[in-house]
Amino acid sequence: MLHEPSQAYNLNGDREIGVGVIGLGFIGATHLRAFSEVEGCRVVAVCDAEADRLDGRPARGGNVIESAEAPLFDPSQVNATTDPDQLLNDDRVDLVCVCTPTDTHVDLAIRALDAGRHALVEKPVAISSADVERLGAHARTVDRLCVPAMCVRYWPGWDLLPGLIRSGRHGRVLSARFERLGAPPGWSSFYADASRSGDALFDLHIHDVDTVHRCLGAPAEVRSIGRPGHLLTSYAFGGDASPMVTAEGGWLSDPAAAFRMRFVVEFEGALAEFDLAHDPPLSLLVDGEQRRPALRAETGWEAQARSVVHALRSGDCAGLATMDEAVRVTRTIEAELESLRSGCAVRVSAPGA
User: Fold this and answer.
1) Whole-prediction pTM value?
2) Following DSSP, what letter does each residue of 263-321 receive, concatenated?
3) Does pLDDT of 13 surpass 60?
């Protein structure tokens, strides 16, 4: 659930939003660069347990975009610390971007909220729906935004799919296939510990589970094959008109494997295809005619940062991901994990069940 910010944070364009980033690995550096591109905000503080990351040098790694060579920030202008509490107690910080290892997300976000800051929490929020629910429940007690970071929702081309489906202009969806594959993350040993990261099931495949929920609703049942590091799931929604929906996600064995981010969605009257390797990545086949919609020239991280800043400055939170959505997605992934273990189809439990 989201709450509109209080009048103290509904700035109506009067001043910049101060952003603090905790965790300066690849994803933290990516968020930092994204906020640096957005008008109406400024990165004022950073924190990382490794002191040698606090000199502004760029981080290495990543699977979607190339590592940048330009400095991340000017240490003379940004409060750089190894102590999260120092960042959380910096009165210039309005929004905290939590980009630390997954098993620290919930507690750090709660500390940020209790310090009077808003929070953008990198995905997965947690690898347990109970922990996501705990953060969501705490967020409801304070007048602050607490937003799961789901950059693929904002990715140019990918972001158009929910609207295409809701409009009904091409008829109902007959089938949908999502694919997200790539080399194992080589920029941090953290991902190799599945008890902390949740493996590719939680760290990578989560984007497609979120897309399934947004586009087609919560599945009633899942059946998964493979392993947590590379799986294929089919989703059943019930009813005679239920579309055939699958998603494959995983880390491939070869460290040189290129990252793949794709979907193929078959409508009654059109075929929509997205492939990150193509330029532009989105195409529509309608009545034998290939169409390529014009797309924004930005990354999903930049668009997401812009949306969060807009929400804080205007009070308009429409379109932001919510903790309730994160709970539902996490419960679906938990059902997929159970299906992998049992070899059977598994019903997806609703939040509160």
Assistant:
1) 0.92
2) EEEEESS-EEEEETTSSS-EEEEETTEEE-----SS-HHHHHHHHHHHHHHH---TT--
3) no
